[in-house]
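Narrative of activities, Objective 1.

The group set out to show that a structural description can be obtained from nothing but a protein's sequence at a throughput compatible with the screening campaign. Below is one input-output pair from the validation batch, recorded exactly as produced.
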Amino acid sequence: MQALAGFTMRGRSQAALVASASAVFSLLVPLFGLISGAAVALVTLRRGLGEGAVVGGAAGLASGVLAFLALGSPLPAIGFAVALWLPVWILGVVLRHSRSLALTVQLGAIFGLVILAGVHLQSGSPASYWKEVLEPMRHTLVQGGVVDAARSETLIGEIARWMTGAFAAAFYFQSALALMLGRWWQALLYNPGGFGAEFRTFRVHPALGFLALGLFAVLLLQKEAMWAAELLLVLTPLLFLQGTAVVHGLVAIFGLSRAWLILFYLLLVFAMPQAEVVVASLGLADVWVNVRGKVASRAPRKE
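Output recorded for this entry:
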């Protein structure tokens, strides 16, 4: 990763190449989208608003040419660039000036709210819109004998109810992760160990914790209140990141091996989504309990 970050910072053309090439690869492997966004974030964090915009624009132009040659239209690439690079570039500008990762990531939740508003404005019934989008998948499942027709209707209907919030949360979470990856690259090149120290102190504002609890209470009282479910889904990445920061903090406090972090991330992959719910719950509890602070105050001091 350090070599890739170093190559990105050699110049505009190298940065645009990393951003555009990884964006193309993300069509096959979605995780490459994080690398693409991180390249724009790194340049923005290190060299400023203008340079980040130039690199994003150059990468968008390159992607547009590729899309025109392959698809006959540059519009898919332009839309992709707006969705992938614009939010990360904005967050990079905010982080460069605020110097607060936690504040920037919390402000980034606005992108999730914009997505929610956009879907609701575009469609008076988002669930019906998603049912149409998911209909080909339902048809394939029925034809393949995976599920019967009657049950498939119920299943797709339930998924459609949650899709708007899930889509908004995923969009926001991807932007936040790309920003954090770019911040990590910056630390690797110019401030080794800096990102780890910064991330281990990551905390959301207590007001967001109260808001999450309030939304959860609304859902308990009224299960059909999808507006509360959608808002709660957008807040969940923040709580998940705080929970993850707690785990990193505890590993550092006790001086544990990195193998514990590897095990933690393996659990996130192989025990999803239950593991993610547990970590987000830990993050929510830490809003008030301050697990890291209490453990650090009681941990034996190193001589």
